[in-house]
Design goal:
- The protein has about 675 residues and is α+β, with helices and mostly antiparallel strands.
- It folds into five domains: about 150 residues; about 35 residues, no CATH class; about 120 residues, no CATH class; about 210 residues, Hypothetical protein af1432; about 120 residues, Isoleucyl-tRNA Synthetase, Domain 1 (Orthogonal Bundle), CATH 1.10.730.10.
- Helix 10 packs across helix 15, helix 18 runs antiparallel to helix 19 and helix 21 packs across helix 25.
- The radius of gyration is 35 Å and the shape is flat.
Length: about 675
């Protein structure tokens, strides 16, 4: 199969857009050139180029197709319209019964012709998040000015251009030339294949593979740090970004002035990362080091000394700004900043951050006894939790909200537990972050997330499909993880009711509990646990105690793994199916069973077993003896099996039939007290 190479060479592409754009290019080209069956598709992306290589067919094979036309008796105008539509003449028609039939012969289309016909349109509609116009006013747009298009097929240029009518598309036309490093190897060079392209770029100081650039940066800065007895603070996101900023990575180390080493390490790290894309270093004990690492994009003749000096000079200026905010912010106590939150909008429908803080204080105070902490400390932590939003440091670096509040609270002499709670109340921010474990911090963190959920649900701002603009799914997972990992017993329904006291609309507590249960189910599925059992247990009766819900689900799951449990599930499903079908005919059949109509011994045995099982199941669930409840249900299996073997449910006598259906309805109700077994996956229904 011929090899296709396409490269789009431009001014510097934002690093955050490169990988997605390469994926979009592969997807769109594969769809557009589907008749050529692209295979072995590879993409490349970097600061100034995006490329794709693939094997394609030599041509689109010739094909023959038949199209049925008008009836033979149709007016001439209908036949003329049919021929005009297909660009055919009358002598191409053949008669098939009562209709005319047109056979269309489509000749083979060379691969190059299809590429010429389709790629200009693909590039004109390319889905960049943001595009720009430049130059002579052409309507063609790209993320940054596009300078070259390279397109070769089996070593030959595929000659297309980006003109569209009167719009010349900046005069861009496909060729076989690209460019190497902007400074080390300026100027164009020709290529005929993917191998030529890769080798030519490497010879001209460009590493075309993003993964290799990332590896070179990671290994290079780690090697330089290790030589100083240090290690790099892990930052995968920064590695990805730097790999998109440099074509020829040259790792270097710089020094931080001692005057700035008393700044909080988080401030130093965020300032270096956000402003300069520098890597923070630390010593083996985890203390911040007075070094930083970065990747230059050139090999300097002086070994990088001037580059390092320049970056050290820039960092001094950045840290001087951070020092200014750090010193200025500490002049005002965190508690004195709280009134300013009345002027900070939380949400148009929910008022200010000041109003929210008042809700958080009451909610943290409510939660505190359940997590074993002093309500006054929890209330104080909630009062101060959002105050750092008014500081200069958080205004400059929003990533530091909470972190700076913790530092400022300690500086103000607040109780260390309160300061730590202010710092940790956003946690966990992601699936890999630890949850709070100190009780005051737990109370503050849960208050923050439960208020967030209650408030947005109350005003109807709930997640839909993949959209979740207020991160409510993340908040729910944070609540779940905090409860599970700290083994907390919380009455969530009561807490949600308390959260709604000062909201503009009632809190839909059942909907919130269902939302949390669904998030918990998804988490269990990710862990490989029986998430369907959790759904079945929750459907049997919404439970606001997540630990109790999990314990009950564990008991049901263990029961279903036993032969008795699996057999009882199948039998109960058979009972449920019968009742469902008969209820559609003349139901419901939910009245009391009449003992005088239990004529068969198997009926009487099943009724007796239900009389024994029903209170035992209810008692087991009420006292959280879920294993006992499952054992009580297991006692139904033998009489239920015997019932189905010996008793005809749809008896000719209507009274007997009705009574037997009511008996089976009781079976379903008894099972349903433990779980809605219709939601259990992976087992055949009877």
């Amino acid at each position: 199969m011929p090899d296709l190479l396409l490269e789009l060479f431009s001014e510097e592409i934002p690093a955050r857009m490169q990988a997605r754009a390469a994926d979009d290019l592969a997807r769109l080209l594969t769809e557009t050139l589907a008749p050529l069956a692209p295979a072995d598709v590879r993409t490349f992306h970097g600061p100034r180029r995006m490329a794709l290589a693939a094997a394609v067919r030599e041509d689109v094979p010739a094909r023959s197709s038949s199209e049925r036309g008008p009836r033979v008796s149709a007016p001439d105008q209908a036949l003329a319209g049919f021929l005009r539509k297909h660009g055919a003449t009358r002598d191409q028609l053949a008669r098939d019964g009562e209709h005319w039939v047109l056979t269309l012969e489509t000749p083979a289309t060379p691969a190059a012709d299809l590429i010429v016909a389709t790629l200009p349109g693909l590039l004109r509609r390319f889905p960049w998040p943001k595009s720009m116009r430049w130059g002579d006013g052409s309507a063609f747009t790209w993320v940054r000015p596009l300078r070259r298009v390279l397109c070769v097929l089996d070593g030959q240029v595929v000659p297309f251009n980006l003109a569209d009518g009167a719009d010349d598309g900046h005069g861009l036309a496909a060729g076989n030339e690209t460019e190497g490093h902007r400074f080390h190897a300026p100027g164009a060079f020709a290529v005929a294949s993917l191998g030529d392209w890769q080798d030519g770029l490497r010879a001209r100081r460009v590493i075309p593979e993003a993964g290799e650039r990332r590896r070179l940066v990671a290994e290079g800065v780690a090697r330089l740090a290790a030589a100083e007895g240090l290690e790099v603070v892990p930052d995968d996101g920064l590695l990805d970004e730097v790999a998109g900023l440099v074509e020829w990575p040259v790792p270097l180390l710089g020094r931080i002035d001692a005057a700035f080493m008393d700044l909080p390490p988080e401030v130093m790290q965020v300032s270096m990362r956000v402003n300069q894309r520098y890597f923070a270093l630390r010593d083996p004990e985890g203390a911040p080091a007075d070094r930083f690492a970065f990747a230059a994009n050139i090999e300097a003749p002086d070994g990088g000394r001037a580059i390092v000096a320049g970056n050290e000079r820039v960092l001094r200026a950045r840290f001087s700004d951070a020092r200014h905010f750090w010193d200025l912010d500490r002049r005002t106590a965190l508690a004195d900043r709280v009134p300013a939150l009345d002027g900070v909008t939380f949400h148009a429908k929910l008022g200010s951050q000041g109003a929210r803080v008042k809700r958080l204080m009451r909610l943290a105070e409510t939660i505190a006894p359940a997590v074993g902490t002093d309500p006054a400390l929890a209330r104080r932590a909630a009062l101060l939790a959002k105050a750092d939003l008014t500081t200069g440091m958080v205004g400059e670096f929003p990533e530091l909200q909470g972190v700076m509040g913790g530092y400022y609270a300690r500086h103000d002499g607040e109780d260390p537990r309160v300061a730590d709670a202010v710092r940790d109340h956003y946690a966990p921010k992601g699936p890999g972050d630890p949850v709070p474990t100190e009780p005051v911090a737990i109370a503050a963190a849960l208050a923050d997330k439960l208020d967030q959920l209650a408030a947005f649900f109350a005003v109807g701002e709930v997640p839909t499909g993949s959209g979740d603009p207020f991160a409510l799914r993340r908040a729910a997972l944070g609540v779940i993880r905090t409860i599970r990992e700290n083994r907390l017993r919380l009455p969530l329904a009561e807490i949600f009711e308390a959260a709604g006291q000062d909201l503009p609309a009632p809190v839909p507590v059942p909907a919130l509990l269902a939302f949390l249960a669904e998030r918990l189910r998804i988490q269990l599925r990710a862990e490989g646990a029986r998430h369907d059992v959790l759904a079945a247990v929750f459907a049997a009766g919404a439970d606001d105690d997540l630990l109790r819900l999990l314990a009950r689900a564990d008991a049901v799951a263990a029961f279903l793994l036993t032969p008795v449990g699996a057999d009882l599930l199948a039998a109960s499903r058979r009972a449920a199916n019968i009742v469902r079908i008969e209820d559609k005919r003349d139901g419901p059949h939910a009245g009391p069973v009449e003992p005088d109509l239990l004529g068969e011994p198997e009926e009487r045995a099943l009724a007796a077993a239900l009389d024994e099982a029903e209170p035992a199941v209810a008692d087991g669930i009420a006292r959280e003896g879920f294993a006992d409840a499952m054992r009580a249900l297991a006692g139904l299996r033998p009489p239920l099996d015997a019932f189905f073997d010996q008793v005809t449910v749809n008896a000719p006598d209507p009274a007997l039939r009705r009574n037997r259906l009511r008996l089976l309805t009781r079976v379903g109700a008894a099972m349903g007290r433990a779980a809605d077994f219709s939601r259990i996956e992976g087992l055949e229904k009877a």
